Structures are given as structure tokens and as C-alpha cells.
Amino acid sequence: MYLTKLVTGGIPVLSGWNYAGGNYEKCLALKASLKLENTTVLDVAYVASGKVKPQGTCITNAHVSAPLCRVQFSTQTSETSEVRAEAWLPDEWYGRFLGLGNGGLGGCIAYDELDYGSSMHFATVGTNNGHDGNDGRAFLGNDEVLNDFAHRSIHVEAVIGKQIVEAYYGRPHDKAYYLGCSSGGRQGTQTALKYPEDFDGIVAGAPATDFNHLQHWRGMMGRTIGAPEGASSPAFIPPALWMLVAAEVLAQCDGLDGVRDGIITEPDACTFRPEALLCRGEGSGKCLTLTQVDALRTIYAPLYGDGELLYPRFDPGAEDSPLFSGKFPPYPEDWLRFAVLNVTDFDFSTYGAVEGRAMEAVNPGGIATFEGDLSGFRDRGGKLISYHGRMDPVIPSGNSKRVYDLVARTLRMPSLDDFYRTFLVPGMGHCKGGPGAASFGQLEGTTTKNLSSHNILLALVDWVEGGVAPDTIVGTAPDGKERTHCRYPMRSVWDGENFGCEN
Ligand SMILES: [Ca+2]
């Protein structure tokens, strides 16, 4: 694991002083010398450490841990669109480029991951995904903003970012990596499909792939328990009752994996029976009405339309979900209004299959990201690591299996192990968190050990640069316990003492 040594290696702290002197001037000189296509350099500053003012309106301050040169820039992507971005160029650079993704319908530069990447000695670049803020209003009537959102911002990040890196360090990067989760996982997947040369290695977490159907599924999840009517709908399940449902799901399925630990290792093995909570007579608030039972049967079943699978089912165990608030969920709401229909107002009390079909038919910016032909990325030697929490309350983990199988069928490859590995993480929520061993270096604040065995970004580096593919990834739980996560289609199996991976 030589790369691990590089990352943790013994660089004397004081060497920073020598670096800082020269780098300070070199950094400031960039402002005048950088000449990039369609790009305006907004600001260049040397930052030793501490808080800095971010671009945009998403957050109020950002943190810098490692001494670096911060370049803020804007790239015009059409007459009506631009991508705002930043490059964080650490003093102690190991020759690697890192591009970052975004989340939700944002609009928000991933400042936490800029800090993470640069402190791991990557020259790290993040963009605002072509608009500011964490909602979809910027899409209204602007197809170019949608193009940025769907695929172009990450390409800009790679192309312009690499030029900035070369200008600053005086030589090109050696290898280029990408890190993102949720929307960022979709962006990484889309980039591998559409711009296979941009990155040598990609970490695509909880990817929001098959994006239009995902939004429709979210909308239908909300509708199933009465959104947007909320508590006045007979199908509505209030939070206290959801806790009862979650407890019953565990009672029925926690033990299937051999250990009653509050974690359902394989949610797809859980056939939840909501009838167990059925009220004997009138509803009492501590049991389910027939209407509520019917709603749960729909929620724990895949979503079909016209006989076709539209999206895999909600993961049993992920009941603490924002989709069940009784309000129509904000992402499908904004996506339908501002990206698909181009209207500011829409009556979501009639939302249904028609709107789902409209999302898929319009497919704004070609965002769907549900194609299996990764041959371009495979053939140029690219490596993709995906991961997905199995308690993900907003993107069913079954979708990552489905995408893996789609790629396998499309490429006629029974196993994708040579270039594409998907790790399924029991007990992890959306991108991070949950009772499971959900920390493995996938995002800022999730690193427990700087080892490629425990850090998915370092595992990717080992794969790309050392040819050592990760067979497993070890995560750490909030209580400090570790668990080995398996790559699909291997199964996580309890041997009486530990979980291991079996075919
Ligand atoms: Ca269990």
C-alpha cells in the first residue's frame, strides 16, 4: 500500500514555511498570468488556513485546513449560462487532480470536499453546477443552465481545472479523480458515459441515476401517503406511527442476517408485512388503518408504469425519510415545474403517472443517466467505484444494483470487477450517517484511517495508480466498530463472529 505511505508520509511540518514563502508569490502571480478559454478569474488568494468567504448563497463560511492557493473563476458555457468554480491548490501536492460533484438540485460548491481533497494533497476543483442556491428556480426557461446541471459543469471543471493546475504547478497532473455523492454520484456516472477521458478514477456515491424516474418515484412516495394534503389525508402516517412502523420492520427483518443489531444487511430479503400493525377496529394512533396498510404495501413495492419497472422499491429500514412529511417532496416539485413544464405553479394534488411520463419524455439536459455503455471509460483504463447505503431514505439502494446489472448486460460482461465496483453499505443513510459502519473516507468528516482499506478515495488511487483493486472496503460505525463491506453481487454473510463476503 505504497500510496498510503505517500498520504500519511513524514513531511516535516516546518517545510510548510519554505513552501509558503514561494507559493504565496506564485499564487498571487496567477491572477495576472492565467489565460483560459471563456473564463474570468474572479480572485486568487493564498490561504494558510482558517475560514474563507464562499461564493454564492448556499453557506456563509468555508474552512481551509491545508495551506493552499485558492483560485475562484467563472466559465461562460453559453450566451445565457456560466459555471462558477474554485480550484484549491495545496502547497503539498502529490500530482493528483480531484474534481467534485454537487447535491440535490444545487447550486452549491462542495466546500467541505474542497477542504477534504486539498488536505489529502489533491489539487481539488468544485463548481456551482451552473447556478446558485439549492433549488431549481434557475432552470426556468433556460435550457443552457439545465445543460450545465445535467453534464457540462463537471466537464468544465475537468478541462479548465486541469489547465489551472498546470499553470500553477508548472507541470500537468499525473492522474485525475472525481468524488461525488447523490447528484454527485449521478454526475460522476454521467461523466464516465459522456466524457470518458476526463477522469482516470471516479467515486460515485448513492448515484441519482435514472434521474427522471427517481424524481417521479419520490413524487409518488409522497403521494402514496397523501401529499400534498398532508395530515388531512386518510393515508397519511404521522411521525410517531412511522416510528412504530420502523420498529415493526426491524422486528420482522433485523434477524434475517443472523444478528439483531438494528441493521438489515440485505433489505431486498425483507418482505415486510404491514398487516402486523393493523388496528382491530377504529384507528387509535398506535396501529394502522386499512388505508395506511395499503399505502405501506405500495411504498415497499417497486414503482411500475405501463408494466415497466420505473424504480426499485424503498429500502425497508430507511423509514426516517423526508419523503413522508405529507408535503410534496421539493426535488420532484422543482424538477417538474422549472425544468420539465416551465411553469411557476402546478397543482400537485393531481400529480401522477402523466407527470412521470412527462419528466421522462422531456429528459431535460439529457439528465436521465441510465445507459449501460461504459465501454469508452472502460477501454481508456478508467476505474469507477460506487457505493450505496442500504438505509438510504431518498434513493433506493436497489437502484445501484440495477445500474450495475444494466452495465453488465450492455457490455456483455458477467462481472464488472475489472473496472467498476459497487459497494453496498448496510445501515448507512444517504451518502453518510446511520447506525452502520458508514465512515470510509467518502466525504469530509468520514475518515477514520488514512488507509486504502478504510478510505474509498485512497482505494481508488491504489486501483488507478497501483493496479490494486479494492475487494472490500472497511467502514467504521459511530461506536467505533468496523465492518467489512462487500462489492455487489457478493453478499455480506455473518459467520458467527464477523461479517464477511461470499459469492
Ligand atoms: Ca441485523
The low-confidence runs, each spanning 5 or more residues with pLDDT under 50, are 1-19
Compressed to H and E, one letter per element, the order equals HHEEEEEEHEHEHEHHHEEHHHEHEHEEEE
Given the structure, what is the number of helices? 13
**Morphology:** globular
Q: What percent of residues adopt helix (DSSP H or I)?
A: 25-40%
Helix/strand/pairing class, anyone? alpha/beta
Give the distance, in angstroms, between the N- and C-terminal Cα atoms.
26 Å
* Main sheet summary: 11 strands, mixed
Would you kindly provide a written description of the structure presented here, covering whatever features stand out?
This protein is of the alpha/beta class and 503 residues long. The protein has 2 domains: 2-8 and 28-176 and 393-502, no CATH class; 213-365, no CATH class. The protein has 13 helices and 17 strands. α12 links the parallel β12 (383-389) and β13. The radius of gyration is 23 Å and the shape is globular. The structure holds calcium ion. Belongs to the tannase family.
